[in-house]
Design a protein that fits this description.
The chain is an alpha+beta fold.
Length: about 650
C-alpha cells in the first residue's frame, strides 16, 4: 500500500514540471523556428515569399499573441502609449515590409526577457515568504479531552490549546493554569521574563520558558498580527522607490513623444520630397527607419529592470534574514546617517546571566555559590535558572534542602544543612533585620543577596548581557560612516551607560518612558540634516518606530505592534544585520542607476543611428530587448551575492 504523502509530493512535483514546461514552450518554439527559418532563407530554400511569410507568422504567434492581446486591452482602456503598443506596431510593420525575422526577434527577445524577470521575481518572492512565514504550523488543541495536533487556522475561539516549554504561542488567548513564566522581552521591552497567572492575557509570539501550559483561545488565526504582516509584505511592491515613481511618470511622457517622432521620420521626408525635386522619397526605406526608431524607443529596459532591481534587493535582503516592506525603504536606508537603538532585546539578549560573585572575603565565593545555588535549585524563576546554569558551569556541588518557603516579591527562605538561608533582594535582608553594606545600595544592577543564620554572606550580580554581535553591529555601522549612534532605554542610567561604554557608543540615555523616547527622536528630527533609523523590538517602541525616517524591528521575538509599525524587520534578531541592510540598499541603488545609465546611453546612440538609416531592426532589437536583458541580468546579480 503506497504512502499518500509521497504520492502527493510526486504529484506536486509533476504539476510544477508541467507548469514550467508550458511557460517555456512558446519561446522555445519561436526560437527554434526563427533559427531554422534564417538558415533556410540563407540557403535559398524558401520557394516563395508567401512560404517565408507563413513560416515566420507561425513563429511569431506563440510569443507575439500575448503582446498583441495586451496592446488591444490597453487600447480599450485608453492606454495608447506603452511598450505593448509600440512593439505591436513595430513588428506588424516589419511583416508589412517583408522583414519577417526581425519582427519575430523583437517579440522573442521580449518574451525571453519576461521569463528572466518572472524567474527573478519568483525567487525573490519565495525568499520573502520563507522569511516571513514563521508562524507555528501546528497547535495542540484539546477536543473531548484528547490533545489533537492541527493547523492554528482550524482552532476556534474558546477552544483550549497546549504549549510546551520552548514553543511559541500560536494564538492569542488567556491562561487556564495557575501561572507560568513567559519570555516577553520582545513584547514589553522588559528584560525580566513575565509571570502570567490564571486568567491573564497571553499573546501569540510569547515563548513558554518553564512548564507546559494551557491557554484558552480568544482570537482566530487570521486576526493575528503575524497574518497581517504577511499581507503587508505581499503588498510591499506597491510601496515604490522615488526612482521607480519617476521612471513610471517619465515613461508616460517619453512614449508618446517617441511615437510622434517615429511618425515624423516618415512624414517630414515625404513633405520635403514634395518641395525638393532632387530628393527621392522611398516609402519602404523611411518606414523601415520609423520602425527601427519605434523598437528602440520601447522603455522595456527601464520599466522592467528598475522595479526588478529593487525587488531583487528585497529578495537578497530576505535571504539574509532582513525584510524590507517596500522598495521605498530599500532606497531610504541608503540615506541614513543616525542610528538610535533600544537596549533590552535589541542590543541585549533580554535574558539574565551571573556577572559577578562577591563574598565577604576572598575565597568565600565557592561557599556563597553553594548556599545560593542550593536554595534556588527548585525554583523556575529566570534569575534562579541563570544562577543554576552558572553554578553548574563552575562545578559547585549543591546541598540538600530540607525546607524552602517563597516570600513573594522578596526571595525565599530555606533550611540547608540545618542552617537558615535567606536568598533574594536587599529588601529581604533589611526586612529580616540583617545589616548589609551601604555600598550595595548604590549598585544599579540586579543583586541576589545571601544571609546565613542571620548574617550577611555576600551577593551575586545578575544582569542582561549584550548580544554576541552587538559590538560588531556598532563597528560595522561606524565603518559605513555612520558616526551618530545612540542608545535609548527605560533601564537605569548606570546600566545603559555601562553597556554604551562596553560597545563604544558615546551617547546613551536611560530612565526613559515611551513618550520620552518620542521627544528625543523629535529633537533629532528637528535638524533636517539628520536621517534617523530607530531599532527596537517592544510594543513601547512602536511610536518611535513610526516617527523615525526608517523604523527597524527585531522580528524573531519582536512584538506584533513593533513588527507592524516598522519599515524593516530583522528576522534573525541580530543588530549586525542593520549594516547588512544598508549595504544591500546601497548596492541595489547602484545597480538601478547602472541600468538607467546603460539604457539611456545605448538607446540614445541607436536612436540617432536608426533615424539616420544606419541601424537596422537587429540593432534596434538589441537596443531595446537586448539592453533590457542585460539590465535584468545586472539586477538579479544582487540575489547571488553573499552579504
Amino acid at each position: 500500500m503506497g504512502c499518500n504523502c509521497c504520492n502527493q509530493t510526486i504529484d506536486d512535483h509533476s504539476k510544477k514540471e508541467k507548469a514550467r514546461f508550458r511557460i517555456y514552450l512558446p519561446a522555445s518554439i519561436s526560437l527554434v523556428m526563427i533559427i531554422v527559418g534564417v538558415l533556410l532563407g540563407h540557403f535559398g530554400l524558401f520557394d516563395t515569399k508567401i512560404v517565408a511569410f507563413v513560416w515566420y507568422l507561425i513563429a511569431y504567434l506563440p510569443v507575439g499573441f500575448p503582446v498583441l492581446k495586451e496592446a488591444v486591452e490597453s487600447t480599450m482602456h485608453r492606454d495608447f502609449f506603452n511598450e505593448f503598443t509600440l512593439m505591436s506596431i513595430a513588428t506588424i510593420g516589419a511583416f508589412c515590409i517583408g522583414e519577417y525575422p526581425e519582427g519575430v526577434a523583437v517579440m522573442l527577445f521580449y518574451s525571453i526577457g519576461e521569463l528572466f524577470q518572472a524567474r527573478a521575481v519568483g525567487k525573490a518572492e519565495r525568499n520573502i515568504r520563507a522569511l516571513l512565514d514563521v508562524r507555528p504550523e501546528t497547535a495542540t488543541v484539546y477536543r473531548d479531552g484528547i490533545p489533537v495536533k492541527t493547523h492554528p487556522r482550524q482552532v476556534c475561539v474558546g477552544e483550549t490549546i497546549e504549549v510546551k516549554v520552548g514553543e511559541r504561542v500560536p494564538l492569542d488567548g488567556h491562561m487556564i493554569d495557575e501561572q507560568a513564566f513567559f519570555n516577553t522581552a520582545a513584547l514589553t521591552g522588559e528584560s525580566v521574563p513575565r509571570t502570567i497567572r490564571k486568567g491573564e492575557e497571553v499573546w501569540a509570539g510569547m515563548i513558554v520558558t518553564d512548564r507546559v501550559v494551557r491557554i484558552q483561545v480568544d482570537k482566530p488565526y487570521d486576526q493575528s498580527a503575524l497574518s497581517r504582516i504577511l499581507t503587508l509584505v505581499q503588498e510591499a511592491t506597491e510601496r515604490k522607490a522615488p526612482v521607480e515613481l519617476f521612471i513610471r511618470k517619465f515613461a508616460r511622457i517619453y512614449t508618446p513623444i517617441v511615437t510622434g517622432l517615429a511618425v515624423l521620420i516618415v512624414l517630414v521626408p515625404f513633405v520635403w520630397s514634395l518641395f525638393a525635386a532632387d530628393f527621392t522619397f522611398v516609402w519602404s526605406d523611411w518606414f523601415y527607419r520609423s520602425l527601427v526608431f519605434l523598437v528602440i524607443s520601447c522603455p522595456c529596459a527601464l520599466v522592467v529592470s528598475i522595479p526588478l532591481g529593487y525587488f531583487g534587493g528585497i529578495g537578497a535582503a530576505s535571504r539574509a534574514g532582513i525584510l524590507f516592506k517596500g522598495s521605498n525603504y530599500l532606497d531610504g536606508i541608503t540615506k541614513i546617517n543616525t542610528v538610535v537603538f533600544d537596549k533590552t532585546g535589541t542590543l541585549t539578549n533580554g535574558t539574565f546571566e551571573v556577572q559577578q560573585v562577591q563574598g565577604l572575603s576572598r575565597g568565600d565565593e565557592q561557599q556563597l555559590l553553594q548556599w545560593i545555588g542550593s536554595a534556588e535549585q527548585q525554583s523556575n524563576h529566570p534569575i534562579a535558572r541563570a544562577i543554576a546554569r552558572y553554578v553548574e558551569a563552575e562545578g559547585v556541588a549543591l546541598l540538600p534542602v530540607t525546607r524552602a518557603t517563597e516570600i513573594a516579591g522578596f526571595g525565599l527562605r530555606a533550611t540547608i544543612a540545618e542552617r537558615e538561608v535567606l536568598v533574594g533582594n536587599l529588601l529581604l535582608l533589611v526586612r529580616e533585620g540583617i545589616t548589609v553594606p551601604e555600598q550595595l545600595q548604590a549598585i544599579s544592577e540586579t543583586i541576589v543577596a545571601c544571609a546565613v543564620d542571620g548574617e550577611y554572606r555576600g551577593y551575586l550580580l545578575v544582569s542582561d548581557s549584550p548580544k554576541t554581535d552587538a559590538l560588531q553591529a556598532i563597528e560595522d555601522l561606524q565603518s559605513l560612516n555612520i558616526a551618530n549612534i545612540q542608545i535609548l532605554s527605560g533601564d537605569k542610567q548606570t546600566i545603559v551607560t555601562t553597556l554604551a561604554n562596553r560597545l563604544g557608543v558615546a551617547q546613551a540615555y536611560g530612565n526613559l518612558l515611551p513618550e520620552d523616547k518620542v521627544k528625543h527622536i523629535e529633537q533629532l528630527k528637528a535638524d533636517p540634516n539628520n536621517r534617523i533609523a530607530f531599532v527596537g523590538d517592544g510594543i513601547n517602541d512602536a511610536p518611535v518606530l513610526a516617527l523615525s525616517h526608517i523604523g527597524i524591528a527585531m522580528g524573531g521575538l519582536g512584538s506584533d505592534a513593533a513588527i507592524e509599525t516598522a519599515d524593516i524587520v530583522l528576522q534573525t534578531d541580530q543588530p549586525s544585520r542593520i549594516a547588512t541592510a544598508i549595504r544591500i540598499g546601497r548596492m541595489t541603488r547602484r545597480i538601478v542607476w547602472q541600468n538607467i545609465g546603460l539604457a539611456f546611453a545605448v538607446k540614445f546612440i541607436v536612436l540617432l543611428l536608426g533615424a539616420g538609416g544606419i541601424a537596422t531592426l537587429w540593432e534596434a532589437v538589441f537596443a531595446d530587448v537586448g539592453v533590457a536583458l542585460l539590465a535584468i541580468l545586472n539586477a538579479i546579480r544582487i540575489q547571488r551575492k553573499e552579504f
